[in-house]
Design brief:
Number of helices: 16
Number of strands: 16
Oligomer: single chain
Structural class: alpha+beta
Strand content: 15-25%
Radius of gyration: 28 Å
Shape: elongated
Mean pLDDT: 91
């Protein structure tokens, strides 16, 4: 017997009962970004592999271990995008929309791909919403990105469950000086480092700072601190960011071990973390990458951005039970019609009501059925009210209006008064 077809491990279907919460989250974010003046950009999910090697760094875990890379029929090496920043930078360079110092405030949404060990909150196909801002170099725009996320957490009702961690990586020059000091220190304690940290010491020593190994963390207690190697410009930038967060009243924790996993970061880095999701504690992260555009062949262009994981934030909403009531109810009104004449009249009536109440979620019964079966479907739909069209209603040109979720008697409403009645009972009530 042939093996049954199923989704690839770590790449999940999002089923109809799950999508309403996804749409609520995505819609909330999109509305917020519109209000702050950000514009959406959409990039392909497949790029030339070289893009990610040049931007992320060849000795990062993502490029070394996690990318889905393949050759196409032309022999080109292509990769499913593991993150969005590199693709966005490629797009703005290709189309010249940051040239001449043009400020661009962009956002995107879509799937990313990394070959990781699947677990709760970490998948091989996962979804992100990302923001990228170009040609603004002050701490004010860094603060705006963080302030937007703070407002989002408030709108979603999860503000008390997240914590902001901040650090500054300085410029590439100051980071280089720090790297030398860190390597010298860690090399003197080489035997106490875990195997992965020993490897990273040779390839990407800053990543040793965010190891989860307890023995290595003990070694890091007395390691040099990045803050002691910051240049004056980076220090002033970081102080400016903290002053703005203090002015808005956003609490934060300074984390000198926060480095992020991508080589292109400089100056500000930040993460929003939670203890509500087990091991997968980061729900939103980003920072500044002032040298990335030039590194990828463009003119010197400052950049800053972040990405948030949709799966993890949807899981948080579920875990904290922050799901609006209307999300679980996808139908406001269910129309039951009995007999062909009533079905025809019901179809026309439903369309007239939709013309007058475009936000009303009105479902018309399909597949006919008895009075009992149609009412069973109306109840299962979660609708607040049922509309009834039978022989008696057709004769009087009225529709039965029956509450399904509370007190109240069935009423008879004239066809031409139905929309106005539902506007009061359903849309407002």
């Amino acid at each position: 017997m042939s093996k049954s077809l199923q989704a690839i491990r770590g790449m999940n279907d999002i089923l109809p009962e799950q999508t309403p919460l996804w749409r609520y989250f995505e819609g909330t974010v999109a509305r917020l970004l519109d209000n702050y003046g950000y514009k959406q950009i959409r990039m392909p999910i497949v790029e030339f592999t070289e893009l990610f090697k040049r931007s992320i760094g060849e000795v990062t875990d993502i490029v070394e271990k996690e990318m889905y890379t393949f050759e196409d029929r032309n022999g080109d090496s292509l990769t499913l995008r593991p993150e969005g920043t590199a693709a966005c930078v490629r797009a703005v360079l290709e189309h010249g929309i940051t040239g001449g110092g043009q400020v661009q405030k962009l956002w995107y949404i879509g799937p990313m791909f990394r070959h990781e060990r699947p677990q709760k909150g970490r998948y091989r196909q996962f979804h992100q919403i990302g923001l990228e801002v170009f040609n603004l170099d002050g701490p004010d725009i860094d603060a705006e990105l963080i302030t937007m996320t703070w407002r989002l957490w408030g709108e979603l009702g999860i503000r008390d469950a997240v914590k902001l961690e901040l650090n500054s990586l300085g410029t590439s020059e100051s980071r280089g000086r720090y790297r030398e000091a860190l390597v010298e220190y860690l090399s003197a304690h080489h035997d106490k480092l875990d195997e992965d940290s020993q490897r990273r010491l040779k390839t990407n020593p800053l990543r040793v700072l965010d190891t989860k190994n307890a023995d290595t963390q003990a070694v890091l207690v007395n390691a040099p601190k990045m803050a002691d190697y910051l240049d004056d410009e980076s220090r002033a930038h970081f102080e400016g960011l903290k002053a703005r967060l203090d002015a808005v009243g956003i609490p934060y924790v300074l984390n000198p071990k926060l480095v992020r996993g991508l080589d292109y970061y400089s100056k500000t880095v930040f993460e929003w973390v939670t203890d509500k999701l087990g091991a997968q504690g980061t729900v939103c992260a980003g920072g500044r990458y002032d040298g990335l555009v030039e590194q990828m062949g463009g003119k010197p262009t400052t950049g800053v951005g972040f990405a948030m994981g949709i799966e993890r934030l949807v899981l948080m909403l579920e875990t904290l039970e922050q799901i609006p009531e209307e999300i679980s109810r996808q139908v406001d009104v269910y129309l039951c019609a009995f007999g062909e004449e009533a079905e025809l009249a019901g179809l026309a009536l439903a369309e007239r009501v939709r013309d007058q109440l475009p936000n009303l979620r009105l479902q018309v019964n399909a597949g006919a059925g008895s009075f009992k079966s149609q009412f069973k479907k109306a109840d299962k739909s979660g609708a607040l009210y049922a509309l009834i069209l039978g022989d008696d209603e057709m004769a009087q040109q009225v529709v039965g209006f029956k509450p399904l979720r509370g007190q109240g008697e069935q009423q008879s409403i004239a066809w031409d008064a139905l929309a106005a009645h539902m506007a009061t009972c359903v849309v407002q009530g």
